[in-house]
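Annex B, item 7. Sequence and structure tokens for protein A, then protein B.
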Amino acid sequence: MLPVYTSEKIKEWDKYTIENEPISSVDLMERAANACTEWIINHISPEYKIIIICGDGNNGGDGLAIGRLLLHYKYIIEILISNSEKRSSDNYTNLKRIENYNPSLIKVINEESFFKFNQNSVIIDCIFGVGFKPPVDNFWKGVINSINDTGCKIISIDLPSGLPAEPENENEQNIVKAWHTLTFQVPKISLLMPGWGDFTENFTVININLNSDFILQNPTKLNYFTIEDAKKIFIRRNRFSHKGNYGHALLIAGNEGKCGAAIMSSRACIKSGAGLVSCFSNNCCDASIVNSSPEVMTEKEIFDFDKYSAIGLGCGIGTDKNAVELVEKIIKSAKIPLVIDADAIKIVFENNFIKHTSNVIITPHPKEFDNIAGQFENSYERFKKASQLAIEMKIIIVLKGANTAIFLPEGSVYFNSTGNPGMATAGSGDVLTGVITSFVSQGYSLTNAAMLGVFIHGMSGDMAAGYNSITGLSATDIIDFLNPVFKELENYY
């Protein structure tokens, strides 16, 4: 599990590595530059001119080292620096190294400089790194605005310059708008937050081999869930197992005009490995459910909850009086784990049914969360409130969105590493409810079911987008790509 550390903690980690490996700080910078260079040569053709814009701190030192290394791969390089007398020691060392190699590559810029970039250029942003604290001074403000106006692809090193590592209450707009960010060792909190993470289209975590003992000595409540974590908790099936070993999931979903919610959630549930899946819905939905997934059984009455392993509740059920009575009955009668989504979230909180619950996962999107918890100035305020509610109510909250965050009752938070903007589409949440309910039904802990369900849902969406497109991605596409995801996890063993 990758930790998500503050900028101060990352500085401590650098220092710990330097002292305990041991390694000099400039050699650690060289290691980071080599890792970035490897990514660049694998993703950017030498036909592009590389323009590296370097500040006077260690982030600028990274850029100077990257420029020198790229020369070995026949790239055309131009390095822009400021006329600063406040360079960090490692920045100065790397400046001298490249000046000794080829001083003509360096161009000094100032307030009078005019920036004009060819569209066949790629800009590498190395102005500010993880230690940056707002505000941006006027000189660099002008440079950043010029960079953003070029229309070129921009690769930021560690963080888009101007973006603080931790969300600030007021996020100024003088920030590089990166095409891709290569962030060192672990994700930074700002990259995971809407409103801050919007300043990069994508990011890649670049391993620079900081000393792993530091993580053991510095546990954190914030973590980043990756495919390696998914492989560790995914349970491969025993060859002597039978359907009774994988639970009986009940989906309570759909209503007149919203039968699709029942179809998608129940189909996703059966495709995610539940031994048996039943669906209780409006009578008008029964035929379409069976026609879509003949493996799914339809229920006429739901009084005997003991025969089920888990319940997925709320997709498309509506919020009328009948729906309220149904949710109340389930909340007060069922003693098995519940995955609560959509309309049921609204009903549960508006009627304070939540006090009757235990073993619960709720899966709101931001608007649904705001409806139950209040309005927030920004995503970071919402994030803090979700963490507080999970602890106070002793429930798991899956706050959906980019890097979906899973909040646990003991205070830990897990950010998901999969998913794409195409998944912001009708029915995607219904699919997620089905996937998570399936894992709960199979006997996964609620924590592992939430983390694995969110990860697999996102990875299925990524595979679907890769095969088709992000723009045209549909919820049923996500279901169709569950099998390839499971195949990859099964092949891990």
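Protein B:
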Amino acid sequence: MNKVRDHFLEDEKDGVDSFMSIAGTSFGGDGQNMALGFGKLKDWKLRQRPDLKVKAIAGRAMKAFSQIKGARVFAFPPPPVIELGMAVGFDFQLQDRGGLGHEKLMAARNQLLGMAMKDPRLVRVRPNGMEDVAEYHIDVDWEKAGALGVSIATIHDTIGAAFGSDFVNNFIQAGRVKNVYVQADAPYRMLPKDLEKLYVRNSVGKMVPFSSFASCRWAQGSPKLERYNAFSSINIWGEPTPGHSTGEAMTAMEEIAAKLPQGIGFDWNGLSYQERMATAQGPILYAFSIFVIFLCVAALYESWTIPFVNLLMLPLGVLGAILATSLRGLPNDVYFQIGFLTTLGLSTKNAILIIQFIKERLRHGDNLIDATLGAVKTRFRPVIMTSLAFFFGVLPLAIATGAGAGAMNAIGTAVCGGMLSATFIDLIFIPIFFVLVSKIFMKKQKKQPTEYALVSTTPKEVR
């Protein structure tokens, strides 16, 4: 921890304000070989350079900490949503669903970590827990203990009182009530073999040597029992590589987990669980959005065929959003999806502005081609003006800096890219699609000549 502290306070002094370390505990458990540290970064105004951002500092720290031979040290930013996890990235639970045992679960964990290191979508995949340690097991022969008249409760109480302590009574001294605890003397509870010196009282009041019904052995085991949804589990943390989203990293972990032995399963925890639940609703949300667009346009035009022109415009706007996001190296996260949905509506807006005027010209007797070309020329300026106004209104989000700029950049970039493609590409394809759809689906309305009949009437004389 001294090396970690010195790295942040000396090598990263331009970006780190202070550092606090805690020995003996961590997110993975408590122990003499566990520790935890928190680095407080300086204010945003003092860290304008890209190399002073949190991800850059964490990346350099990981490179420096990898040279520490006596420990495994990981540096990572805090989670984006407080109380839903302890670190940025995903929260994965590897489970023993087939009752294979702890050794098979640890072997599956090591296999998973090995495959994760080779996956280009994953970085800093590490177990959030404690490694197996040496444990001293006491194996009691219950048949011998029963034959000697020794009960289970008596064995547990004797070991607990000798190596721990046990309250037995109170006594009064100088007018104060004090507690009495019993425990084996220090020289007789220092080593594991001191268990053989214990005697346990049986049911008839006689003392039975502990070694007569129990044996001891060393073994390797987990110092912390971890379960998730009632299954033995190992918690694993990780992050996506730059340019990939947590959703892609979670998909990569699911693909790796599918290659593990039968009986080994997985589940998601914390923010990853919430993300997976929300991701499952994504296709339904997109489908419902497109359905609502179709119904609104159908009600506007009072037609079931013309709205297909608007739906054909949607991929063109989405193409710009995806292209702009990819060029900036931004991930496909929830903020991008918000901009994605916004682009769907904006792509429809341009088609509405033009198609409405095409219908007006058709009502005045123009043919399909002339009405389409005339409407495009008439509405060219309004389409450009409204599109550019929205583009420049969203542009500050795409180029924003400072705290919270990541979310604004993702939304602004998607909307700006989608707005540009929906404007300049749609102006070409809207008339083309409208003419094609009209010729395929719309029936030609034949004008019937109006017939007039002259009727001559002679009123009768009323007498």
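Comment on protein B: Residues 139 and 215 are 5 Å apart (CA to CA).
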